[in-house]
Amino acid sequence: MYLALKHLHLTFVTLSLLFFVLRGIWLFINSSLLTKKWAKILPHIISTLLLLSGIVLAVHMGLSPGSQPWLMAKIIALIIYIGLGVATFKVANRNLSKALWVSALIVFAYIVSVAITKNPLGFLG
């Protein structure tokens, strides 16, 4: 069961990253695809499934953020990633939007590094 949950979670991690990168590219080339209804809804569906799969995986493994500092670090970083991601597509300033997008990608990489190392410092440590 663990491997199935882990692979499901990793699938949503990958889809989340790929779609965020794609939407960023669309934003910077002024693609009309970014305004399509499915392009606005799909990220929320992927993110919800990613979060749910992570919660189910943590419960299955008996992990809690209070007893696992690396898990708490991932949750905090996830909140930051979401904030940066939302801001990326809301701000009117193109340069600020690009900076927010790159910052969100760095935070995403940090989250992945924490998941791999099980260390709250991730690639910073």
What does the model show?
The protein contains four helices and no strands. The protein starts with a helix and ends in an 8-residue tail after the last helix. It is 78% helix and 0% strand. The longest helix is centred in the first third of the chain and has 27 residues, at 2-28. The chain is mostly helical and 125 residues long. The mean pLDDT is 95.
> What is the radius of gyration computed over CA atoms, rounded to a whole number of angstroms?
15 Å
Average per-residue pLDDT, rounded, comes to 95
Count of alpha/pi helices: 4
Q: Please summarize the sheet with the most strands.
A: none
Percentage of β-strand residues: under 5%
* Assembly category: single chain
Q: Fraction of residues in helices?
A: over 70%
Distance from N terminus to C terminus (CA atoms, Å) equals 32 Å
Q: What is the structural class?
A: mainly alpha
Series of secondary-structure elements, N-terminal to C-terminal: HHHH
Rough outline: globular
Total beta strand runs: 0
Low-confidence stretches: none
Blueprint (SSEs and pairs):
Elements: H1 2-28, H2 37-61, H3 69-90, H4 94-117
Can you tag this structure with a few keywords?
single chain, 125 residues, mainly alpha, 4 helices, globular
Compact description:
78% of the residues lie in helices and 0% in strands. The relative contact order is 0.12. The chain is mainly α and 125 residues long.
